Amino acid sequence: MNANTLFGKALGLGSGWKVVNSEMDVEGRHLSLWLDFEAGSRFECSKCNEWRAVHDTVEKKWRHLNFWQHETTLIARVPRTKCEKDGVLVADVPWARNGSGFTLMMEAMILLLCQQMPVSDAAKHLGEHDTRLWRVLDHYVSEAHEAKDWSKITQIMVDETSAQRGHRYVTNVLDAETKDLLLMVEGRGAEAIAAFASEMPKHGATPQQITEVIMDMSGPFMSGAKTAFPKARIVFDHFHIMKLAGTALDDVRKELRAAGADLSGGLWALRGNQWTRTEEQLKLRNKHCKTYPQLGRAMALRECLQDVLSDKNRESLKWWINWAAHSRLEPFKKLGRTLKSHFEGVFAFMETRLTNAAMEAINGVIQLSKRAARGFRNIKYFRIAAYLKVGGLKIAVPHVLPI
Fold first, then answer.
1. Which end of the chain, N or C, is less packed with Cβ atoms under 10 Å?
2. Would you give the DSSP letter of residue 101?
3. What is the domain partition of the chain in residue ranges?
């Protein structure tokens, strides 16, 4: 078996194609393989799939997987078929996707590497410009995302995350059950929610099937959800509610410090839940709360709200809001008014226990990949990377046809 025959079998070219020449540049660590088809072969029209005669040929090149650490290029005379219906078109070849400068096996390697590392690092590893890799990812990720079935989705999570410097944000929508990223939309207002609703029919779904939308207390999100999902119940995330309570407590601390109170070391001692603080921090927390009654009331309000939210009692929530209104602590009076105006969404959490905790984790993964890649040149790349890593997509990994 000569070298050309061996290379042909290794490539899995299929019938009708063969390697006719091979050259190895040992110093440059490069292998070139020339492919050609059998004389008299007929090929399918790339549009109607009818078998047609060869009209002429064009030379094309593809980057292939390395052979023995040698960068490998395939070069072939690709036939153009003359079709009575569709005219003269370039025929498909079995080892590469039409329009791609990579073989199918090389594209499979690109997908594998980019799922494990930033695209820029994968490009350096392969010795390619990252723009070429983004084109491959765009094709397969977009194809898989378009094929995603949303027909069974009833609960969604909505949140925003930064995309680029200069206050550029995107809105992410997750399936609350599978935690898959469904859609990333530029912006963070009602229009982002509307964009998801308008996208649903393309995935076999309708806005009427959504029963719960989990979000923070963003006015634009609320407005968008009420308009786009008229049958859905808005659920306010526990994390964001307690974050507001923590902010109110911190505002009380700041007011006391501004008035001359000695709260040295109290910043971290007063923040967070008891079970997350050290023994020393808890002692300091108790000391400050006893010394300053306003701080003690603020801490009691915050910790009591935590207990109220763990219950399913509407009256308990009403009682806490009334306590906050009479607490003589303006930050908590303000929080009480906020919870009162968003009562049903807060109580919806108490009943369903649905949270955006998974969204926070997903946003963390997205931001980590963005930092690892030192940012993205545009929102399109950001979206592709997010779908690839956390979209739960079934990507059709390319393969070469059997011999």
1. N
2. S
3. 3-101, 104-146+373-403, 155-236+355-370, 240-352
Q: Look at residue 373 in the predicted model and tell me its pLDDT.
A: 58
Q: Terminal CA-to-CA distance of the chain, rounded, Å?
A: 17
pTM across the whole model: 0.85
Q: Which pLDDT value is given to residue 151?
A: 97
Strand partners, 35: 19, 76
Contact 19, 5 (CB under 8 A): yes
C-alpha to C-alpha distance for 170 and 175, rounded to whole angstroms: 17
The type of residue at 15 is S
Q: Which amino acid is at 67?
A: F
pLDDT at position 372, please? 57
Q: List CB contacts of 119: < 8 A, sequence separation 6 or more.
A: 130, 133, 134, 137, 373, 381, 385
HSE of 120 in the Cβ direction (CA atoms, 13 Å)? 11
Q: How many CA atoms lie within 13 A of 166 on its CB side?
A: 2
* CATH, domain range 155-236+355-370: 3.30.420.10
* Beta pairing, strands 233-236 & 212-215: parallel
Q: In this structure, are residues 224 and 192 in contact, taking their beta carbons and an 8 Å threshold? A: yes
Which residue, among 114, 112, 106, has the nearest Cα to 130 in the 3D structure?
A: 114
State the sign of the Cα–Cα–Cα–Cα dihedral 198, 200, 201, 206. Answer: negative
Q: Are 231 and 266 in contact (CB under 8 A)?
A: no
Residue among 123, 158, 57 nearest 363 (CA)? 158
Give the pLDDT of residue 165: 64
CA distance 5 to 231: 65
Euclidean distance between CA atoms 400 and 398, whole angstroms: 7
The amino acid that residue 87 corresponds to is G
Q: What is the phi/psi pair of residue 142, to 5°? A: -65, -40
Q: Which residues of the chain have pLDDT under 50?
A: 401-403
Task: Look at residue 400 in the predicted model and tell me its pLDDT.
Answer: 55
Q: In sequence order, what DSSP letters do the residues of 342-379 get, joined into one string?
A: THHHHHHHHHH---SHHHHHHHHHHHHHHHHTT--SSH
The one-character DSSP state at 103 is: B
Calpha distance 365→392 (Å, rounded): 14
